[in-house]
Amino acid sequence: MAINPISIAHFAETQLQLLLREHEAEVSSSTLASTAASVSPSTRRKLQATGYALTGLVLSQCRTGMGGRVVGEFVPDPAIVSKREDGAADGQPRLGSHGIRVGDVVRVNDVSAGGKRVGKDKDMDKDGKDNKGAEGVVTRTGDRAIWIAFGSRGGGGRSKEEDEAIEELWGKKLWAVKLANDVTYRRMRQTMEKMVKMTEADHTHFMRVAFGHMTPLQPDHDATGPIEFMDPTLNDSQKDAIRFALASKDISLIHGPPGTGKTHTLIELIMQFVQQKKRVLVCGPSNVSVDNIVERLAPKKVPVVRIGHPARLLPSVLEHSLEVLTQTSDAGNIVKDVRKEIDTKQASIRKTKSGRERRAIYDDLKQLRKEFRERESKCVDNLVRESSVVLATLHGAGGHQLKNQRFDVVIIDEASQALEAQCWISLLSADKVVLAGDHLQLPPTVKSTNLKSKDGNEKADKPNETADKEILKGVSLERTLFDRLLSLHGPSIKSMLTTQYRMHEQIMRFPSDELYESKLMAAESVKARLLVDLPYEVDGTDDTQEPLVFWDTQGGDFPEQADDKEIGNKEALLGESKSNEMEAMVVARHVEKLIDTGLKPEDIAVITPYNGQLALLSQMLREKYPGLELGSVDGFQGREKEAVVVSLVRSNAEHEVGFLGEKRRLNVAMTRPKRHLCICGDSETISRGSSFLKHWMDYLEENADLRYPDAGDLL
Ligand SMILES: Nc1ncnc2c1ncn2[C@@H]1O[C@H](COP(=O)(O)OP(=O)(O)OP(=O)(O)O)[C@@H](O)[C@H]1O
């Protein structure tokens, strides 16, 4: 029987519209929108100062790197350096300070490419040729040089235009500018376009279930038989989740509340699939989420291959990267010779003056490259086919390496942090999916809409008749696949991990009761841990022997301030920011007292939902305690610390709580600490925000060590 079916084509069309709007919002909020080829020297310097550019470069050498990409080495322009006199004592010129990092996509351009030229030929050089520079990915940065890999498609698949663009850089004064990386957007768009075009007959069983045309099939436990777990440390809820995911015929969700060992569980699940001779594609929304799994899987000796640009991978997982395997494995030998030949030819272009000879070399190169592509694609295909486990980011799964590859199952970690369209990039290649995540923490950041809803997750976990309508109205990109499936099919498609290995029981109790149906249990090893029990010397004080402290600033002496000034780019997303200077002083004093006990600043995090407050707290604390971590609540998702101090900021006569009303944000804030959580806020204002906030304030009043700061004392 069908339940609230959603038309797949209509869904994809709506997503396309929403994605377009999101992309436009992203581009327009990006400083880089205005930095096409031509900018003035002062803008270039400004861009360097704000971390977006690196000026005063020349190309010093080129070689063919991994995947047949050309890697250019860029060094400071000797002319500029001698003028600036900032060469090092050893006479080697150094790059100025800049914010370009490994993995950034950059465009390298001739400084004279634009400048004063304006109007329609601003991107043209003197010959009227298009002069957009060369785009690449930063592979390494050093004091004296920066290395950039060119060739977007890799695999020697550079086009003639790309080659020429690189050639053009020789002998020129250059600068590099960071570009917005729109690969993710492009791949989502392609996937949605594909889904729009599908006919009914193209829809797999799994797709029909995902859109409510069919109900999920019953899990088949008989088919999987008795399971022998390899990891002896797994707890019962983890084992149940693994059994459930193995037996599922189409969709299963692993719901992992904070600290419950989602990744730990996924590693065993992957191993079990491998033992059953299944091919598994493992994805996550970020490179870090994927590398985290590669690192933990690698010691298990299963053949794994990680797809992705080597510059963006953790060094520890490089040996499993497809591009490295293409070179180091036996299969890789067949491409080596051709690459050498390409290198030699490439180098000879520079020595050739005559245009005719150059053209001849380009023709040869074209042939060689074709050969390279064919051989490499065969090699890549073999390597991918021979691997039981392929790992990639969700958008990486849309790359050419996985074209036409089918998998028995796709596993997506941190699925509740991915846009649904992003998930579908990987999902079209399999008939079964396992999603791991927690829909009660924050969804991915979306710029084109605002996360200000007061009851962001009110509907989660309940079959929701209006889910389909909502999507068709195009209300939200923030609704994740994880959340939508749960609403569509109800909790029978999920299995929840219930033992958490992070928080003291008293820190865990409120989120467990309020959001996780009181199902969370604190593992024996963590339930009673206090700061004073840390393995290094910490004095026993009111703070270090107390898991939960509430500094209640009620009474009107700790009022918030509206912060109109721009503090960071995120302001556009967060709206006008707020701060609270008096409350910041309470936070600072608490931090000082903790550090006075011997607690290391590295073991403390101060987090707040408001950027205005973050800026204020940074001014007060950053210099004094460099090891202390200061951040936004949103940015701290997925992290943990021994002690966490949360500054709630809001304190006003109108009882406005703004986006404290989003309980997923508060859930993230209160579930980061292991041994000590200190909340600073005005219970009067906050308890009027929502029933959730009221319950929280009541809980803190009853269970926390309640303290009332004296404003006079602080001043
Ligand atoms: N069955 C277990 N027995 C003992 N420790 C465990 C078990 N499962 C997980 N842990 C520990 O719990 C911590 C969190 O586990 P893991 O890193 O797998 O979780 P995660 O899914 O990445 O994070 P989170 O659960 O916070 O989303 C780790 O320190 C891990 O060693």
In short:
36% of the residues lie in helices and 16% in strands. The protein is of the alpha/beta class.
Output the number of helix runs: 24
* Uncertain stretches: 84-89, 115-130, 153-157, 450-469, 565-575
Q: Any ligands, ions or cofactors bound here, and which?
A: adenosine-5'-triphosphate
Sheet/helix structural class? alpha/beta
Compute the separation of the termini in Å: 67 Å
Helix content: 25-40%
Major sheet attributes = 7 strands, parallel
- How much strand content do the residues show? 15-25%
Give Rg in angstroms. 28 Å
Total beta strands: 23
Overall, the morphology is globular
Major beta sheet, strand line-up: 9-10-8-11-12-7-13
Give the rounded overall mean pLDDT: 85
Catalytic activity: ATP + H2O = ADP + phosphate + H(+)
Domain AAA+ ATPase: 248-486
GO cellular component, one term: nucleus
Pfam family, one: AAA_12
If you had to describe this structure to a student in words, what would you say it looks like?
- A seven-stranded parallel β-sheet has the order 9-10-8-11-12-7-13, with helices on both faces. A six-stranded antiparallel β-barrel has the order 1-2-5-4-3-6, surrounded by four helices.
- 46% of the residues are buried.
- The protein has 715 residues and is of the alpha/beta class.
- The chain contains 24 helices and 23 strands.
- Adenosine-5'-triphosphate is lined by residues 233-235, 238, 256, 258-264, 501.
- Its EC number is 3.6.4.12.
- Keywords: ATP-binding, Cytoplasm, Helicase, Hydrolase, Nucleotide-binding, Nucleus.
- GO terms for molecular function: 5'-3' DNA helicase activity; ATP binding; hydrolase activity; RNA binding.
- Residues 230-459 form the Helicase ATP-binding domain.
